[in-house]
């Protein structure tokens, strides 16, 4: 189910402003790829172009090509709604639907897809919660509101919700930035487990986290305010942290940035 | 603020010299005086509410004691001044309830559709303009709805009632064996049009506040737009919309002249809703007041008290619903919606300080996200099978397959329906404007604006409304002069000083006043000012009644605008050593002024169209009276001219009625447009 992503010459705009410029990369299936870089360098924007969430913002548009296995996500006739079925997303702040129970949150995407059979739903909800390492904590209160969980649990609930529809790719936009270290560890463990089934892309400001969880790391940077973000380099994580090709990468990683 | 010279505001040290003492000076006199004044204004407001309740109860008890009929069940004619006195309020309350329920059943779904259309479907550039157009429905005075209702809607409703009867005739409520048209059903339809804008405006604002995370979470699951609305927007807005519906219901309960003009009066408990006949508390007051003597007035006041209590409870309910919701509790008055764009813009400005453009995209924008799925030749079978296959981890669906056909159809259908509700809501506005302009142009001429109706018979052409223009301007002008200073002071109290019990009480009673039916405001001035204090029924009494209606509007809008002034401005001023009262008068209020002016103008536009309270406290005359303080001579206003002439069978008089309506609408629309232009021009963050 995990799929390979190829990006070629991608630029993204907010109205007339170009936020990222000419990005090309390949993301292999069943790997974790981390995006690092300073604030405003376009990591999140780029991430959001991978499931066409970028264009949810009025005036936002994308140029270039993103292919998932062999399908061009921006090809004519491709439905953004369908794309997001295949490319799931976890956000910076946990965002469970506040009016829904834990169970209903996980089942939300399945129900949208028309799955109504109770038994089948039960199975998938349980598997997804187990997959998100949350099952043991919530199995006795599935009918309770999702908003009643702690921040870390909420984020794992959001991951469960995302994987319940069995996407091909899982995008994570700083999924731990609103969490404490213990919850962060739980999520990081989860990411390592999910890697066996999904292609995972994670944006993070925490370089230790990138080093811990990712197989490959991409470094983004801007040359100045108002200029678009660019991909500086992408390589094996060990290589990026030990022996980067670009000086900018080394400066950023060693804290000699700016 | 350049007006603040440090030297002018340096605190005068108390006691002797010495640098240490300048730092320990106590409260300054200016601060004490200023806080005393605003506190007094707040207390005055509470006393006013207590007086309203007290005088109504006092006047009502006398009549209730004299009543020889059972006030709850009596269904005979309204005869409180007969001996023995007989009147019943139960059937009036029933009629009030029935018309309001019919109104809410019609208005709520349409209003929610309109709100969804404007907030979720309409192109972003158009959304604000479309919102204003719906708000215009709220600006049309109730006298004009009445005129439109009796002369246009009632004749057309006979066919419509018959259709409803044909379908639902097997239910006794919808029996059609009798005269149709001037029924509670028609009254309910008119009321539904009148309350639609308030429900739509509040719902729209709440829908727009749906957290972006919720919207994105839904989209990220592959939701279509309609599914996103059901997952994120509707659950978030549930309470707020519920509260809006209750507020609309409260508004419908108190509507007076439009109902009085449309219903043909009967005093039974109406059980045949399509057939002519029925009455409501408010309409009965307007109809019976002219012929009421002492007990009669008391009886009407007693019924007004019932209305007051019921609307009070309804507004309390709305407040409770809102109190538990995650929405600001001041989202409760349609005209105030003009301030929302400003506040959103301000919030947006603040957020952009810490946000960087690329990583945190425009919060505001996402709310009206456009994500229309492109047209695709959908493979129905594969689409429907996907969730199961996806759930079991099968691979290989083509990305070209969009959500299953039924889902897509549902989404398009839902979008189409919201467009439909918007068009439906526009029809009455277009119809009213067209009729008023088309019928009003015959008598409209320069001499119509410069002559009165003195010595003009209904059958004669000529004459005009000069006398009514003077009355309207004087009464609303006086009301503005009284309401604006008090209102701003109360708002300053609430925002800058208010805490504790007094502030809670004031906030609560401003809410109560906001929901006060205008006829009750008239009754209050009648019972306290005219009957209680023996003052004259003149233009000034009318101005006082309008003041009561204007006060809550001025307070709310000023409060809103004062809250918008960033705290950093206040702190910057304090850091210069400027005392609090000068910070408020020289910095906070001037910053908020354009918004306050807008609120005041919208308030003026509203009271200018008021009919019901004026009917009670100002006698109607046909000649010019420029003195609003004259003893009991009366004074005409544009709405009362319409009310007193619409029933004439004469062509010449009808032309003048429509021309007066035309003039009134033009004045009110111009005020509304100017108010919105000011709000737009001075809006924080305007590019």
Describe it for me?
The complex is a heterodimer of chains A (258) and B (687). By secondary structure, chain A is an alpha/beta fold. Chain A has a single domain, classed as Rossmann fold, CATH 3.40.50. In chain A, 35% of the residues lie in helices and 25% in strands. Chain A is built from 10 helices and 10 strands. Chain A has a 6-stranded mixed sheet, sandwiched between helices. In chain A, strands 2-1-4-5 form a 4-stranded antiparallel sheet, with helices on one face. Chain A is globular. The model of chain A has no long low-confidence stretch (mean pLDDT 89). With 687 residues, chain B is an all-alpha fold. Chain B has 2 domains: 285 residues, MetI-like (MetI-like fold); 214 residues, Orthogonal Bundle (MetI-like fold), CATH 1.10.3720.10. Chain B has 26 helices and no strands. The longest helix of chain B has 38 residues. The N terminus of chain B is likely disordered. At the A-B interface, strand 2, helix 1, helix 2, helix 3 and helix 6 of A face helix 8, helix 9 and helix 15 of B.
């Amino acid at each position: 189910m995990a799929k390979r992503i190829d990006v070629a010459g991608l630029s993204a705009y907010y109205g007339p402003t170009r936020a990222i410029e000419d990005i090309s990369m390949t993301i292999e299936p069943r790997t974790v790829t981390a995006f690092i870089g300073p604030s405003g360098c376009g990591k999140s924007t780029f991430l959001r172009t991978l499931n066409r969430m970028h264009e949810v913002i009025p005036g936002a548009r994308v140029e270039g090509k993103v292919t998932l296995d062999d399908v061009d996500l921006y090809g004519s006739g491709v439905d953004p709604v369908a794309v997001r079925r295949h490319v799931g997303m976890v956000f910076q702040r946990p965002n469970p639907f506040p009016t829904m129970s834990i169970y209903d949150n996980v089942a939300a995407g399945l129900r949208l897809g028309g799955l109504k059979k109770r038994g089948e739903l039960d199975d998938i909800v349980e598997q997804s919660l187990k997959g998100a390492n949350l099952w043991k904590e919530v199995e006795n209160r599935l009918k309770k509101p999702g908003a009643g969980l702690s921040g870390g649990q909420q984020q794992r609930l959001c991951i469960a919700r995302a994987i319940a529809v069995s996407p091909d790719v899982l995008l994570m936009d700083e999924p731990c930035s609103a969490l404490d270290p213990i919850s962060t560890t739980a999520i990081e463990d989860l990411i390592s487990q999910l890697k066996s089934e999904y292609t995972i892309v994670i944006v993070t400001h925490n370089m230790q986290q990138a080093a811990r969880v990712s197989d490959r790391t991409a470094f983004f940077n801007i040359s100045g305010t108002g200029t678009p973000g660019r991909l500086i380099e992408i390589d094996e994580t060990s290589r990026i942290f030990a022996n980067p090709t670009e000086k900018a990468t080394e400066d950023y990683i060693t804290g000699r940035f700016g | 603020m350049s007006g603040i010279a440090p030297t002018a505001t340096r605190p005068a040290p108390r006691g002797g010299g010495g640098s240490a003492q300048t730092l320990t000076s106590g409260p300054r006199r200016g601060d004490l005086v200023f806080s005393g004044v605003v506190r007094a204004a707040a207390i005055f407001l509470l006393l006013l509410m207590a007086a309203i309740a007290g005088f109504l109860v006092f006047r009502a008890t006398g009549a209730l004691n004299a009543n020889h009929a059972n006030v709850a069940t009596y269904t005979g004619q309204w005869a409180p001044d007969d001996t023995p006195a007989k009147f019943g309020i139960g059937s009036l309350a029933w009629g009030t309830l029935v018309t309001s329920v019919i109104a809410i059943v019609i208005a709520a779904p349409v209003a929610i559709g309109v709100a969804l259309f404007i907030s979720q479907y309409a192109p972003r550039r158009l959304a604000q303009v479309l919102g204003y157009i719906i708000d215009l429905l709220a600006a049309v005075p109730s006298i004009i709805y009445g005129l439109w209702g009796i002369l246009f809607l009632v004749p057309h409703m006979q066919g419509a009632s018959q259709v409803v009867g044909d379908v639902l005739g097997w239910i006794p409520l919808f029996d059609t064996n009798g005269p149709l048209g001037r029924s509670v059903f028609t009254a309910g339809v008119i009321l539904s049009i009148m309350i639609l804008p308030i429900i739509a405006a509040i719902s729209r604002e709440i829908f727009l506040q749906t957290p972006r995370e919720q919207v994105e979470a839904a989209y990220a699951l592959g939701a279509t737009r309609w599914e996103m609305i059901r997952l994120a927007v509707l659950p978030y807005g549930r309470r707020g919309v519920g509260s809006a519906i209750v507020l609309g219901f409260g508004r419908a309960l108190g509507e007076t002249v439009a109902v009085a003009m449309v219903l043909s009066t009967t005093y039974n408990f109406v059980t045949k809703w399509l057939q002519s006949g029925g009455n409501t508390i408010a309409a009965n007051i307007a109809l019976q007041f002219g012929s009421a003597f002492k007990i009669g007035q008391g009886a009407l006041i007693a019924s007004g008290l019932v209305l007051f209590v019921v609307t009070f409870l309804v507004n309390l309910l709305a407040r409770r619903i809102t109190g538990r919701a995650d929405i600001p509790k001041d989202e409760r008055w349609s005209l105030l919606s003009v301030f929302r764009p400003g506040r959103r813009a301000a919030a947006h400005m603040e957020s952009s300080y810490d946000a960087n453009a690329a990583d945190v995209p425009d919060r505001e924008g996402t709310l009206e996200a456009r994500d229309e799925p492109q047209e695709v030749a959908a493979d129905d079978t594969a689409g429907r099978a996907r969730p199961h296959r996806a759930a079991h981890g099968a691979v290989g669906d083509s990305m070209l397959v969009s959500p299953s056909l039924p889902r897509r159809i549902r989404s398009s259908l839902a979008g189409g329906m919201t467009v439909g509700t918007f068009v439906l809501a526009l029809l009455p506005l277009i119809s009213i404007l067209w009729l008023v302009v088309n019928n009003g142009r015959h008598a409209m001429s320069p001499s119509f604006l410069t002559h009165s109706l003195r010595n003009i018979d209904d059958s004669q052409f000529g004459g005009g409304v000069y006398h009514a223009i003077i009355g309207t301007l004087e009464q609303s002008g006086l009301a503005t002069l009284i309401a604006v200073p008090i209102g701003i002071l109360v708002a300053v109290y609430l925002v800058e000083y208010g805490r504790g019990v007094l502030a809670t009480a004031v906030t609560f009673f401003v809410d109560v006043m906001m929901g006060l039916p205008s006829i009750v405001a008239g009754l209050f001035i009648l019972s306290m000012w005219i009957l209680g204090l023996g003052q004259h029924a003149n233009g000034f009494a009318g101005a006082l009644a309008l003041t009561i209606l204007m006060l809550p509007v001025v307070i709310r809008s000023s409060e809103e605008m004062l809250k918008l002034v960033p705290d950093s401005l206040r702190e910057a001023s304090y850091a210069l050593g400027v005392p609090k009262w000068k910070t408020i008068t020289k910095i906070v209020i001037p910053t908020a002024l354009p918004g306050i002016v807008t609120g005041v103008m919208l308030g003026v536009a509203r009271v200018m169209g008021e009919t019901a309270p004026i009917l009670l406290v100002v006698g109607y005359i046909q000649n010019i009276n420029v003195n609003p303080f004259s003893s009991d001579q009366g004074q005409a206003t544009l709405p009362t001219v319409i009310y007193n002439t619409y029933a004439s069978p004469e062509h010449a008089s009808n032309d003048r009625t429509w021309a007066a309506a035309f003039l009134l609408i033009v004045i009110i629309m111009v005020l509304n447009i100017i108010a919105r232009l000011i709000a737009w021009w001075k809006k924080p963050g305007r590019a």
